[in-house]
Specification:
The chain is built from eleven helices and ten strands. It folds into two domains: 6-258, Aldolase class I (TIM Barrel, Alpha-Beta Barrel); 267-333, Alpha-Beta Complex (Type Iii Antifreeze Protein Isoform Hplc 12). Strand 1 (6-12), helix 1 and strand 2 form a beta-alpha-beta unit. It has an eight-stranded parallel barrel with strand order 1-2-3-4-5-6-7-8, surrounded by seven helices. Strands 9-10 form a two-stranded antiparallel ribbon. Helices cover 34% and strands 16% of the residues. The protein is an alpha/beta fold. The longest helix has 18 residues, at 241-258.
Length: 335
Amino acid sequence: MNNDCYVIAEVGLNHNGDFELAKKLIDVAFDARVDAVKFQKRTVSMLAIKSVLDAEDNRFPELGKTYGEIRERHEFNAQEYQVLKIYAEKKGLDFIVTAFDCDAVDFLIDLGVNKFKLASHSLTNIELLKYLSKKNVDTILSTGMSSIEEIDTAIKIFIENRASLKIMHCVSSYPTPPDECNIRMMLKLKEKYQLPTGYSGHEIGFLPTLVAVSMGAELIERHFTLDNNMVGFDHKMSLNPGELKAMVIQIREIQKIKGTGKKIVSETEWVTRKKYHVSVASKEFIKKGSILVESMIAYKNPGTGIPAKDLNKVLNKTARVDIEKDVLISIEMFE
């Protein structure tokens, strides 16, 4: 990862199982100039017990009658995922997928996916952590709704398997109220684990995300949608296309504002410096052959002459010419 903030546009479930809508969302991500687009993959039969999957679910009648049906509606097959992956990568976007189970990991690796995400609720899925950490892929782990001890355990698994890992501070509240965002926790995670660290936000709007970037987030993840009024799980707390683009623009501006941390005089500063810094000037008329002493000089702008720190270059030297009062002194005036 370079010094820039890596921005992940989370499609998640906002394609509603519509392949063409998924492609349109990739187009939106590309237009917003993010770094990566992210999808999700579940083996629905492994997601929950049968009674939960078969339970009646009236939230989104257009997408299914039971929880299991709704989840199945959102799953793409291998061919569809392969097309989406190629479509995204041809646009220069990294293709990341959240795997929710070991079968999903195998499904994705068979398709050539090498950048994975683990959702916050997978942080305690020891079987999945161990399985993915042995696959030699880049992984990002969200840390919502977990204790420090649980995060310790998860990260230890990846360290023991020498696996690439980045972590994200996350609050698993949809949407997250501003007073629960707790962005300082991101810094605590960075300090404690010494891993690339970022923020996965679920707030309305994106102010907390910008705060995270200003505080040093190395990666950012945000859900986005074509329309906040669409039927489905995450549309209402997602960014619309205009918001996603505006967020990325402001993230890049924050990066410029934060700068390099190196102290330099910029080109624009040089203009002001030359105008207002002081130089060595004659306090009185100095006759040719006179020895220059400190009582003969003053310090005045512009700053295009000899700076005060270089006074020794002319002090106690003999004037080669007559020097008028109240002019900048130059080295060439002395011998």
